[in-house]
Amino acid sequence: MHRKLIDVCKFKEHLITIKPNATIDEAVYHLNKHKIGCLIVIEDTNIVGIISERDILNKLGTTDIENNIHHVKVSEIMTPKEKLIVGHPEDTVEYLMNLMHDKEIRHIPLVNDEGKLVCLTSIRDLIRILLKDSNSRVKHLSNYVQGKYPA
Fold first, then answer.
1. Who wins on pLDDT, 21 or 136?
2. pLDDT tens per residue across span 36-91
3. Would you kindly state where each structural domain of the chain is located, as residue ranges?
4. Strand 17-18 and strand 38-43: pairing?
5. pLDDT of the residue at 151
6. pLDDT of residue 10 exceeding 60
7. Alpha helix locations (H) across the chain?
8. Average pLDDT of the segment spanning 89-94
9. pLDDT tens digits for 96-149?
10. Which of 126, 95, 87, 122 shows the shortest CA–CA distance to 15?
11. How far is Cα 144 from Cα 125, in angstroms, rounded to an integer?
12. pLDDT score recorded for residue 101
C-alpha cells in the first residue's frame, strides 16, 4: 500500500512553532513541554526554517556558545528555509522514509503548492502508519486463512 503523506497529517494535532528571534532557552522549553523533537520556525505566516534538538546539541558541541546559550537566537542555529527538505501531499510514506534515511533527518514539513505549511511529520509518525497497515494486513490474511470471512 502506498499511503500519501496527507494520510499522516490527518492524525497530527496542531503544530508548535517558534519565531526566529526567540532564544534557544525558549526552543528547549517548547521541545520539552510538548515532548517533540523539532519546531518549525515561522515569521509572519511563512516558514523560515526548522530547529531540532539535534541542531541545538550539534551547535553546543561545536562552538563556545555554551557559556552564552541564554542569548543565542533560534535563527542562529536553525536549518534555514534554503536548506530545508520538505514534503508534498502527493508524496508517499515510503518515499519520505527513504528520503529521511538518505538525508539522515527525522522530520519533514509538509507544504502545499503555495509553499504554506500543512503539517510536520516525523520518522516515528511514518513507522506508526506502516505498522498499523501491516497489522491490518496480517489480521485480514489470518481471517482469510482461517475461513472467517463471510461468504
1. 21
2. 999 999 998 889 999 999 888 887 766 665 567 778 899 999 999 999 999 887 88
3. 5-145
4. parallel
5. 47
6. no
7. 5-9, 24-34, 53-62, 74-77, 93-103, 123-145
8. 84
9. 889 999 999 999 998 888 888 888 888 888 888 777 766 566 665 666 666 676
10. 122
11. 29
12. 92
Write down the CATH superfamily of domain 5-145.
Answer: CBS-domain (3.10.580.10)
If we measure between CA atoms, which residue out of 45, 115, 53 comes closest to residue 84? 115
Judge residue 148's burial from the number of C-beta atoms within 10 Å of its C-beta, 0-12 exposed, 13-18 middle, 19 or more buried: exposed
Looking up cell 515532548, which residue turns up? 35
Contacts of 102 (CB under 8 A, 6+ apart): none
Q: Which three cell numbers stand for residue 112?
A: 502545499
Amino acid letter for position 47: I
- How far apart, in whole angstroms, are the C-alpha atoms of residue 91 and residue 95? 6
Contact 137, 145 (CB under 8 A): no
Query: Dihedral angle at the C-alpha atoms of 77, 80, 83, 87, nearest 10 degrees?
Result: 120
CA 67 to CA 147: how far, in whole Å? 67
Which cell numbers hold the place of 70?
541564554
Helix (H), strand (E), coil (C) string for 86-100:
CECCCCEHHHHHHHH
- Separation between Cα atoms, residue 66 and residue 28, nearest integer Å: 14
